[in-house]
Amino acid sequence: MDVEAMRALAPAIAIAIGAIGPGIGIGILGGKAMEAIGRNPEAAGEIRTNMILAIAFAEAIAIYALVVALIIKFV
Questions:
Q1: Cα separation, 72 vs 49, whole angstroms
Q2: What is the pTM of this model?
């Protein structure tokens, strides 16, 4: 492959690999939170708050991958 093709492909690979983990993690987290709310409905508010906080932390990792992809693209 030529260099230009690799330069175009590198940011896509960086964001793809960087988004797989947080995507899977958010899916598992949401599913487990729904199970917990189903088992203990009176704790729904606290479970939801903790779930949203954990999702924000997982999403931050995907944003780091986006920043790395942008650095690869434009530097």
A1: 35
A2: 0.80
